[in-house]
UniProtKB/TrEMBL annotation:
Domain HTH luxR-type: 154-219
Gene Ontology biological-process annotations: phosphorelay signal transduction system; regulation of DNA-templated transcription
Any Pfam family the entry gives: Response_reg
Name used for this protein in its record: DNA-binding response regulator, LuxR family
Length: 225
């Protein structure tokens, strides 16, 4: 699925040409990332994703014809091999919640550090979840601390997992990719993928971000910093 020399193939969608040019330049600095298609609206983004089947679809939220949230949901549904990451200036809870529930595994802010953008694309391409620090704070607050009693519910949910599955879930919650989890647990990557898939099925969540939320609520992830 990767491009020439294993490059991460990216579809970039934003209705502003100057924004696309800037993001393209930032990603090019990563050297291992190749923008294979660009779209100025959500409908074209979906069509181009279906045609090029990129590793990552990087979508602006506010676009004409079809917004990035709806486009992302359609790409997740019709191009399962493509990871979806949202790129926006907006970090309101409603946008974050819908993006995550729609299957996005990345949420990046245009105002973020360029290195953060490159790291985010690499992470979601590698099967991990990546949220900008500001967005992560929204997620933890919105899905964790404000929901009294969810800790007990989450602990009950993870109680159905095997010890190894709980260990994998905790590392997913810490933001590790499959190769990183494999190295940490001395497993082959294929085995980790199987564990992650089993964990998602058992928890009845759509993606790694939602699984990470459960891991936080269940206390499987130590406090950062």
């Amino acid at each position: 699925m990767n491009g020439v020399n294993g490059a991460i193939r990216v579809l970039l969608a934003d209705d502003e040409a100057m924004i696309r040019a800037g993001v393209r330049a930032i990603l090019a600095a990563g050297q291992d990332i190749e923008v294979v298609a660009e779209a100025a609206d959500g409908r074209d983004a979906v069509s181009l994703a279906q045609a090029h089947r990129p590793d990552v679809a990087l979508l602006d939220i506010r676009m004409p014809r079809l917004d990035g949230l709806a486009a992302g949901e359609e790409i997740v549904r019709t191009v399962p091999g493509t990871a979806v990451a949202m790129l926006t200036t907006f970090s309101e809870d409603a946008y974050v919640a819908r993006a995550l529930s729609g299957g996005a595994t990345g949420f990046l802010l245009k105002s973020g550090d360029p290195h953060e953008l490159i790291a985010g694309v690499r992470a979601v391409a590698d099967g991990a979840a990546f949220l900008s620090p500001k967005v992560a704070r929204h997620v933890i607050d919105g899905y964790g601390a404000r929901r009294v009693g969810r800790g007990a519910t989450a602990r009950a949910r993870v109680g159905a997992l095997t010890p190894r599955e709980r260990e994998v879930l905790g590392l997913v919650g810490a933001g590790l990719s499959n190769p990183e989890i494999a190295a940490r647990l001395h497993l082959v990557e294929g085995t980790v993928k199987a564990y992650v898939s089993a964990v998602l099925d058992r928890l009845e969540v759509k993606n790694r971000v939602q699984a990470a939320i459960v891991a936080y609520e269940a206390g499987l992830v130590p406090d950062a910093d």
